[in-house]
Design brief:
Strand content of chain C: 15-25%
Oligomer: heterotrimer
CATH class of chain C: Alpha Beta
Strand order of the largest sheet of chain C: 1-2-3-5-6
Helix content of chain C: 25-40%
Shape of chain C: globular
CATH class of the domain at 73-82 and 320-494 in chain B: Alpha Beta
CATH architecture of chain C: 3-Layer(aba) Sandwich
Strand order of the largest sheet of chain B: 3-8-2-1-9
CATH architecture of the domain at 73-82 and 320-494 in chain B: 3-Layer(aba) Sandwich
Shape of chain B: extended
Largest sheet of chain B: 5 strands, mixed
Radius of gyration of chain B: 31 Å
Mean pLDDT of chain B: 71
Structural class of chain C: alpha+beta
CATH topology of the domain at 73-82 and 320-494 in chain B: Trna Endonuclease, Chain: A, domain 1
Chains: A alpha+beta (303), B alpha+beta (503), C alpha+beta (137)
Mean pLDDT of chain C: 83
Low-confidence stretches of chain C: 1-6
Distance between the termini of chain B: 65 Å
Strand content of chain B: 5-15%
Number of helices of chain B: 17
Number of strands of chain B: 14
Largest sheet of chain C: 5 strands, mixed
Low-confidence stretches of chain B: 1-19, 177-187, 206-308
Chain lengths: 303, 503, 137
């Protein structure tokens, strides 16, 4: 839990294109995008046990196509045709398949061990509380318990560690442990299955582009779907968990007709919720997005 | 001194101005600018009622009441504002009081600019909604500045306190437990399972005052003490404006500022027997008819009675084309003159209004003739429909809708419904001509729905079945009434449904 | 009906907005600028400052705190564009309006959109160039 800074540089976050949707399954990719590329996406995943769940969703996060494109444009992420990549990886060789299964087993083992440690730690604490009035002993014990077993097994101490694909460490001695078999692991990512070279083969380059998405991404703004406020994007000056949205933004073509009534309507609603209504588009005569994007912010004049 | 400019006590004026004493239901007793003379009902169980009936009947036969409409108002077509102006003071009052037609062009709704000016100059007293609004706004602007100042003050104090704490922490840095120091240094999100398991279960089990690596300061940042900060479920600006200090919200209690409570978003509508305007909340954008200029008020009220005698009413009642056509065609109480003073026929009015329903108007000789689905006709059909049913439709541009629907009128209640007029091309002719409905986005729909729900109105989609042009032109030959019969109106009310709230 | 179409509808709504600014909002020095081939723009001085950027307000409060002197209170000249609610605009036309303001003086950061409705309501909205943080109160 203290190894965050010591990690090697990560590959670019991987956006999986599946059935026309742009999804990020890896939690670390999701947090990198959120932290460093001001892209939060929307959580769309439910728990397998709770398929009817419609609040408090989890991974994967879904990005809108133009958001994904904006990230690719700035070389902050890559989009991979996930189905094709999976098939290619599975068909390539039987060894990679068995290696993957072994890596799953290893992850299981790691998770199980962590849980066992927690249980032991709790038991120790409970015993310490029940046992004696001495403060120093129960305090020292859990600390030792949590540090000691983690230290030797370096590399596979967490089940989602960004270790190299399973091939390298397939000789884990704990794989065959029998109690592991009734202990399931739900992985959020099948990263270990697909070798990087295969992955690269299936990168997608024809993601539809949105000038406004590029412009907002480039400007450091976070966006969420804005339908609640009657716009395409709700635009936040920072992480939506910290800030309220500042803008409701709509994208138009440079010569697309915008009814004045829509501008007034948007301005009125935005002002009522303490935001500004933004209309934006890219001028095709001035180069490429995001540089050629012009935005106008509308708010009530207060007269 | 008391008799010159300062307002007199209410008692003294009560007698010399009896008009103001009338209750709203007395002023607005007539729902339409025509009078009706119904016969009293006959109850077989009550023989006396027959005598009443006979008396009224014979009375009306012997001396029939004047033919209705007894008064025909005059209006002038104004091409600049594409509307009909009523300048006669009596007609202005009558059309407003008998069915709430038109809008004073210098007022918010009821034409009371003259009264407002008189009150301003101390000639008359009483209260006028626009003056109230101005005062309220002044107060609000001051309160807002004050609020901004206090917010700023809050931020400054928080910063100072944080600086002191940081200082203290630095001094006591070595004494801190290593764990605490570590988390302070690296406030990263706990991701892996071990990290998540390492999180404390509750605030009570925290080693120090740490949550998630954020410093906690007595109060969590979710519960800021500002009493105005949570309105309508939308958090106030404090978090947004103070980018760099937002993670800690100090426990400083905000002093109560007079007038600050008014800054709260008012969801509920306010009723006032004498106020004709509809005030909703401070973020009500389109609210003309009042000035926010204090200097103007002062200078005007300070002017001694010099100009008082020659106060001319600058205001006119402005009728929208739909209202004008309804008064002219359906009620027959209005004659519209064109610029040269010649009265316009109903057909001429209709043509004129249809040409001017687009911008720029289609008045040129080679402009295409308007189709039966032009904006004016669609809106008129809906206006006619609801007026006939006894509703009071008024312009809805304030809320981005086509019409607002009042049950009795803006004096009595607030509009309950916002109408959106949508043409429906159900006739096979339209389908064969490849006509398509106007394409609107979901964003547009949601934004209107949201605006309306902010002001507690329901959205009604009014579908108007448009007849094909040849049928329409044919029917128009025999009269507008026949042409209007070809239109059908269907209403659908739309409400937002949320699975969490509507359980 | 012949006399109805003599005048250009754009200058008519512009004139309506000018009147509204003067009569209802007490603007002064209101004048109309006609650019070549451009929409006419109205320039005028509101009775009080129409707009303070939130950051300027923070700075003004800061200044007020340290010196006791209020800043940013005096009104500034504003540019007003009169439009009709039935109109449709495009981003390129809005951009050209901003460009035309530039030619008449320093580039304006905002224009005021005055929409004339035929029930005599004139609705005013601020149109800023760029992403401009909304005012919070």
């Amino acid at each position: 839990m203290t190894t965050v800074t010591a990690r090697p540089p990560r590959p670019l976050p991987r956006i999986s294109k599946i059935a026309g949707r742009y999804l990020v399954f890896d939690h670390e990719d999701a947090s990198v995008l959120r932290r460093e590329a001001n892209t939060n996406g929307s959580l769309v995943g439910t728990l397998p046990q709770q398929p009817t769940q419609n609040m408090f969703l989890g991974l994967p996060i879904e990005l809108r196509p133009e958001e994904a494109e904006a990230l690719v444009h700035k070389n902050l992420a890559r989009v991979v045709d996930d189905v094709a990549a999976h098939q290619a990886a599975l068909l390539r060789s039987p060894e990679s398949r068995t290696a993957y299964i072994q890596s799953l087993r290893r992850d299981k083992a790691a998770a199980h061990r962590v849980l066992a440690e927690r249980a032991a730690q709790k038991a120790a604490v409970a015993a310490g509380k029940a046992g004696g009035r001495k403060k120093s002993k129960p305090k020292a014990e859990p600390a030792a318990a949590s540090n000691a077993p983690l230290a030797p097994s370096d590399g596979d101490d967490t089940m989602f560690a960004s270790a190299p694909p399973a091939v390298s460490s397939a000789s884990s001695p704990r794989v065959a442990d029998s109690p592991m078999d009734n202990f399931g692991v739900t992985l959020t990512s099948s990263r270990d299955l697909i070798p990087p070279d295969v992955d690269r083969e299936f990168e997608v380059s024809d993601t539809p582009q949105g000038p406004l998405a590029r412009y907002l991404q480039d400007g450091g703004y976070h966006t969420t779907p804005g339908l609640r406020f009657g716009s395409e994007y709700s635009v936040y000056p920072g992480d939506p968990l910290r800030f309220h949205a500042h803008f409701m933004a709509n994208q138009y073509d440079w010569d697309e007709e915008i009814p004045i009534l829509d501008i007034i309507e948007g301005g009125r609603l935005a002002t009522a919720v303490k935001k500004a209504f933004v209309i934006a588009g890219s001028d095709p005569s001035k180069g490429e997005a995001p540089e050629n994007v012009t935005a106008y912010s509308i708010e009530w004049a207060g007269m | 001194m008391a008799e010159t400019s300062t307002p007199k006590p209410a008692m003294a004026s009560a007698n010399n101005n009896p008009a103001r004493e009338r209750r709203p239901h007395e002023i607005y007793v007539q729902p339409a600018p025509i009078k009706t003379f119904p016969l009293p009902s006959f109850y077989p169980s009550n023989p006396l009622s027959f005598i009443q009936l006979a008396y009224a009947w014979i009375g009306q036969i012997l001396s029939p009441p004047a033919a209705e409409p007894s008064i025909i108002h005059q209006g002038t077509w104004s091409v600049a504002t594409t509307s009909v102006h009523i300048k006669d003071a009596q007609s202005m009052r009558a059309l407003w009081e008998q069915g709430f037609y038109g809008k004073g062009n210098l007022s918010r709704s009821e034409p009371n600019w003259l009264k407002r000016e008189e009150v301003r100059r101390g000639l008359q007293e009483g209260h006028v909604s626009e003056i109230h609004t101005v005062e309220r706004r002044e107060e609000r602007i001051r309160a807002k500045w004050e609020r901004a100042r206090l917010e700023q003050e809050n931020i400054r104090q928080t910063r100072e306190r944080e600086a002191r704490q940081a200082e203290k922490r630095r001094a006591a840095g070595d004494a801190d437990t290593p764990l605490k120091a570590h988390i302070l240094a690296e406030p990263l999100a706990p991701v892996g399972p071990a990290e998540i398991l390492a999180l404390p279960n509750s605030a009570a089990s925290l080693p120090g005052n740490l949550v998630n690596g954020f410093v906690k300061d007595g109060s969590s940042h979710g519960e800021s003490s500002d009493d105005y900060s949570k309105t309508n479920g939308i958090l106030d600006s404090s978090l947004e404006t103070s980018d760099d200090t937002s993670s800690t919200e100090g426990p400083i209690s905000t002093p109560v500022i007079p007038g600050l409570d008014r800054l709260k978003r008012r969801k509920s509508v306010r009723f006032s027997p004498t106020v004709a305007s509809t005030t909703f909340d401070h973020a009500d954008p389109p609210s003309p008819g009042h000035s926010t200029n204090p200097k103007q008020n002062e200078s005007l009220s300070l002017v001694p009675q010099a100009g008082a005698g020659v106060l001319i009413n600058k205001e006119h009642l402005q009728l929208m084309p739909e209202e004008a056509l309804w008064l002219n065609f359906a009620l027959g109480v209005l004659v519209v003159l064109d610029g040269s003073g010649t009265p316009l026929s109903t057909r001429a009015l209709l043509n004129l209004f249809r040409q001017h329903s687009v911008f720029p108007p289609l008045t040129g000789p080679d402009d295409p003739a308007p189709l039966p689905d032009d904006d004016f006709l669609l809106h008129y059909v809906v206006y006619h429909h609801f007026r006939s049913l006894g509703w009071v439709p008024r312009a809805g541009i304030k809320f981005g809708v086509d019409w607002l629907l009042y049950n009795r009128g803006p004096v009595f209640d607030h509009a309950e419904f916002g109408l959106l007029v949508i043409p429906s091309y159900s006739d096979p002719w339209w389908q064969s001509s490849g006509k398509r409905k106007p394409q609107k986005t979901w964003q547009w729909f949601h934004s209107i729905l949201r605006v309306l729900s902010h002001v507690m109105k329901s959205m009604v989609l009014v579908y108007v079945d448009v007849p094909p042009p040849h049928k329409f032109e044919q029917a128009l030959e025999s009269g507008l009434a026949d042409a209007l019969k070809l239109y059908k109106v269907r209403e659908i009310m739309v409400k937002r449904w949320s699975s969490n709230r509507n359980r | 009906m012949a006399q109805l179409s003599e005048e250009d509808p754009v200058s008519q709504i512009t004139q309506t907005v000018v009147q509204n600014l003067e009569d209802q909002h007490d603007w002064t020095s209101v004048e109309t600028h006609h650019g070549a081939g451009q929409r006419p723009l109205i320039k005028g001085l509101p009775p009080r400052r129409l707009y303070i950027h939130p950051d300027d307000q923070i700075a003004a409060l800061e200044h007020e705190h340290s010196t006791g002197v209020l800043l940013h209170q005096e009104p500034e000249f504003e540019w007003v564009l009169a439009v009709h609610p039935a109109e449709k605009w495009t981003l390129s036309r809005i951009a050209s309006v901003f460009d035309s303001v530039e030619h008449a003086g320093e580039r304006a950061k905002r224009i005021v959109l005055g929409t004339v409705h035929n029930d005599s309501t004139v609705v005013y909205y601020l149109l800023h160039e760029g992403l401009v943080k909304p005012r919070q109160n």
